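Sharing in case it's useful to others searching the archive later.

Someone asked me privately for the predicted structure of Embryonic stem cell-specific 5-hydroxymethylcytosine-binding protein, so I'm posting the question and my answer publicly. Question first, with the sequence:
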Amino acid sequence: MCGRARCTLNPNQVAAACGFTGDGGGRSSVRTVDANRFRPSYNVSPGRYVPVATVRRVSNGENGGNEVEPVVHCMKWGLVPSFTKKNEKPDHYKMFNARSESIKEKASFRRLIPANRCLVAVEGFYEWKKDGSKKQPYYIHFKDDRPLVFAALYDSWSNSDGEVLYTFTILTTRCSTSLEWLHDRMPVVLGSRSCIDLWLDTSNQKFESLLVPYEGLDLVWHPVNSEVGKTSFDGPECIKEIQLKSTASNSISKFFTKKSEGGIKPEKEDSKEADTVKNEKKDKSSDYQSTRVKIEETSESVDAKKKETNDYDHVKKETPPFEPKGFYTSEKEKQCPRVKRDFGEVSDLDILPVKKEKAAKKGDGQVSLLSYFGKK
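And my answer, the predicted C-alpha cells:
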C-alpha cells in the first residue's frame, strides 16, 4: 500500500504544509538537512530521498533548557532499523509502510513512537486496482491540489563505513468508505493542523484516534497510465487522466479468440480424456458394424424363406387338384377349376346321385333345385 507518490514540493513548501511556516507559525523558513539530496519527482519510489518534517529538541545555552525546533530533513523512503547489521545491505522495500494497528507490537516501530515521529508531505499517491491478471493505477489527491500530510516514523542507521543514513516509513490504516473498491489499505492522512500538532507532540501517547481512515469528500482520484509502475517513468504524464475502455467492449473482445494461420486453434484435450473419447467412438463403430451384419444376415434369411414360400406356392399352383373318378358330368365343368374346387369342398359327394334318383321318382318327374341339397 502506498508504494508510489508524487512529490515536487521544495523544503519550504513542505514546512508550510506541515504548519511550520506561512500560516501563523511566525517563521519565514525552517532549518533543512541534506536538502541537496532531494530530487522532485512525479513518481517517487522507496529508496528515494523525500523531504520529511519533524521537530527536534535542541539545548538552549542561555536558559540551560531544551527547545523544540522544526526541521525539514531529506530522508530515504523505506525504514532501515538502527539495529540492522553494519555490513548488511539495506532493503528499502522491506518496511516502506507500517501498519498503524501493530506499531506498538513490533520492535522496529515501537521504540520510535516516543521521539521519532515525523510528517511526509506529497501532492498525491498512486494505488493499483486488480482486475484479474491486470492492474490499473489510480492517482489520488485533494480536489484543490493542496498537499497530503501523512503520519510517519523515522530512524537512523550507521553502516560499516560510519556513514549515518536516515530513513522513514509511512503509517497505513484500513481504507476509507469511498476507496474500498480500490484497496483495503490507505496512508494515515492528517487532515487538520490540530491532528498534525497532536502527532508531533511526543509527550502525548494517546494518538490512536489519529490513525483512522480519512473520510473527507475532498479526496478524489482518476485512472492514469500503467507505465507509472516503472520507476523510470516520470514527469507530468504520470498524473494525466486517461479514459478506460468500457467493460462491455472488454468482455466482447475476450469472447473471441485469435485466429492462427490454419484457423481457430482448438483447445488441447487431456490425453486420457482424448483416449477415452477415441475408444468410445471405436466401440460405437464396432457396435454399428456388428448390428449391420446382423441386419444383413436377417435380411438374407427372410429373403431365403420368402423364396422358399414362393417356390412352394408355385408348385402348389401347378399341381392339379384331386379329381374323384366320375365326379364331373361334362367337359364344360372340367374347364372351370373354381367350380371344381367349390364342389370338392362339399362332403359326402356320393349322396348327390342318390338324391337325384329319388327326386325323379316323386312328383311329376321334374328335378327341383332343392333335390341337389340334402340334409345330413
